[in-house]
């Protein structure tokens, strides 16, 4: 019997692309008065264009090259800092809120999220979801070596909540890292494939595939009932 549902955050409870847009807008606003006399909307457009071509790692470098702005590592670090520390303009989708409301009356809810602090904390605050979860683990607090697919965060939740893996469901999006540890621990795993999801690559790693796949979070409660 399922007693506990553990959620991932990004591209599971909301579309991570909305956070990216918010971060790019914050960095464009930062750049405009300091380095280039272009409208922030135009700088944002360059970020967005490069991101959509698949450049998810050196977007800022490529944008500054296109803008013909000289830069060094310090400026890039400053831009990354603005991105990670901005107050995100994101909202919890109504279907996610409905599911959390419904499940919180029946199951223990927990959350595990990778990513940089304080960015992940600021996301959770902006979404207004902290009160739904009995346990929230930011893997960055454990150390970079304990980001998923490390089993450490999952083991920590099992210990904290005194629950058994066979009574636990984990729902997330990223096949490359999310399901390896919970599968090996004996949890039920569900992959949510959101239409706007960023992380779409498949994995050949053993145990990387979720046991179930859904395409709308609104179908989660009915699936849990089947378990």
What are the key terms here?
alpha/beta, 10 helices, DNA polymerase, domain 1, 227 residues, Rossmann fold, 45% helix, elongated, 2 domains, single chain, six-stranded parallel β-sheet, 6 strands
Briefly note the CATH topology name of the largest domain: Rossmann fold
Which strand order do you get reading across the main beta sheet?
A: 3-2-1-4-5-6
Number of helices: 10
Structural class: alpha/beta
Query: What percentage of amino acids are in beta strands?
Result: 5-15%
Radius of gyration: 19 Å
Report the average pLDDT across residues: 95
Helical residue percent band: 40-55%
The run of helices and strands is EHHHHHEHEHHEHEEH
What does this molecule look like?
The chain is an alpha/beta fold and 227 residues long. It has 2 domains: 4-15 and 91-226, 3-Layer(aba) Sandwich (Rossmann fold), CATH 3.40.50.1000; 17-85, DNA polymerase, domain 1, CATH 1.10.150. The protein has helices spanning 16-35, 40-52, 59-67, 73-85, 94-104, 119-127, 139-142, 152-161, 180-185, 220-226; strands spanning 4-7, 108-113, 135-138, 168-172, 188-192, 212-214. The chain has a 6-stranded parallel beta sheet, with helices on both faces. Helix 1 crosses helix 4 (73-85) and helix 2 crosses helix 3 (59-67). It is elongated, with a radius of gyration of 19 Å.
